[in-house]
Design brief:
Elements: H1 6-21, H2 24-34, H3 52-66, H4 81-110, H5 118-131, H6 133-150, H7 157-163, H8 165-181, H9 187-199, E1 202-203, E2 208-209, E3 214-216, E4 222-223, E5 228-229, E6 234-236, E7 240-242, H10 248-253, E8 262-263, E9 268-269, E10 274-276, E11 281-282, E12 287-288, E13 293-294, E14 303-304, H11 317-331
Parallel strand pairs: 1-4, 2-5, 3-6, 4-7, 5-8, 6-9, 7-10, 8-11, 9-12, 10-13, 12-14
Helix pairs in contact: 3-4, 3-9, 4-5, 6-8, 8-9
Length: 332
């Protein structure tokens, strides 16, 4: 009688497990059938969709240009600056124009629009964006100075550029805002949602934010699409500049209307304050205290705070009880 060996057992196990692999073709057939059914989402087309990782790479490449010398491992000086920027701007142009073409073409096909000649238009818009880079650098420099002026914990401009999440979020927002106003679809929102996932700061690319804007700490800040913010405004963590909750019908009616507040120049908004509504205006130089819930306008030079709460102070009873028990044990 032939004895069963370990090798025979392994062969039998492999053979029995193989039946599960045989079910894969049927699963694939079901998935193929579900594509285009309307019950789920897919992009099966001869035209490729914009690539999210390439759009994130555009942000990385933009940072190399907007902050030259900060995010590279090698030396950058006056000798190689022109060469460096020439290489970086050319590389950015190539990837940016390609993704803009894909975004415009995808939007055109999805909405069945009249041909806009997406290939030359994509390259034209990429160049228009690149022309904005010097002004964009100047705007971001004012944000960085506002951070140093507004945060005594900030040791230097270098520290702010390297480590402040609000500055990174504002860089991404200002890039996305430029692309948004060039009417480039999809890409700006991908950019700001990437910044949201990285920093916890959610700024819609359609929002209008003035000069010298500073987000201190930053986690949980939300700034809606139709929000307008003036110059030299400072906000703290958890601040929401949002819209009032709407029904489905109202969402359709107000989709292209102002739904988010206006914050005028030199306003300070402290942590976890919530300001809602398109008709809400916070006047210049006002201060909004922490945890305030505001759905109506306030005039300039106004302070809005929650009424001071009564605090109750008392000794921790469990500590007293534990101490008395310990004393009794020592005496016994």
């Amino acid at each position: 009688m032939k004895r069963s060996t370990n090798g025979d057992k392994c062969k039998n196990t492999i053979k029995s497990v193989g039946q599960y692999r045989d079910e894969i073709p049927a699963i694939v057939d079901a998935l193929v059938s579900s594509c285009g059914s309307g019950g789920c989402f897919d992009h099966v087309s001869t035209e490729p969709i914009p690539y999210r990782e390439a759009i994130i790479d555009i942000l990385r490449r933009s940072a190399l240009i907007l902050y030259p010398g900060y995010f590279i491992p090698t030396r950058l000086d006056s000798t190689n600056l022109e060469y460096y920027l020439g290489q970086q701007v050319t590389s950015l142009y190539e990837i940016l124009s390609g993704q803009i073409v894909l975004a415009i073409r995808h939007d055109c096909i999805r909405k069945n629009q009249t041909c806009v000649h997406c290939e030359p238009l994509g390259h034209q818009l990429a160049i228009e964006f690149l022309h904005e880079l010097p002004a964009l650098r100047a705007m971001l420099a004012k944000d960085i100075r506002a951070a140093l002026d507004g945060d005594p914990a900030a040791g230097s401009y270098d520290e702010i550029i390297f480590s402040y999440p609000g500055i990174w979020a504002m860089m991404v927002y200002r890039i996305a805002h430029k692309l948004h106003h060039l009417n480039i679809p999809l890409m700006p929102r991908i950019m700001t949602e990437y910044a949201h996932s990285r920093t916890g700061i959610d700024i819609h690319p359609g929002a209008h934010i003035g000069e010298s804007f500073f987000i201190d700490h930053g986690t949980g800040v939300v700034i809606g699409e139709t929000c307008t913010i003036g110059d030299r405004v400072r906000v703290y963590q958890g601040v929401t500049l949002g819209a009032l909750s709407l029904s489905r019908a109202e969402c359709k009616r107000l989709r292209n209307q102002k739904r988010h507040p206006t914050i005028e120049d030199d306003v300070i908004i402290y942590a976890s304050a919530t300001i809602l509504g398109g008709d809400t205006v916070v006047g210049a130089r006002s201060v909004i205290g922490g945890n305030v819930w505001l759905t109506h306008s306030v005039p300039p030079d106004t302070e809005v705070f929650i009424q001071k709460q009564d605090l109750i102070f008392g000794a921790k009873k469990f500590k007293k009880q534990a101490l008395s028990k310990g004393l009794r044990k020592m005496k016994s």
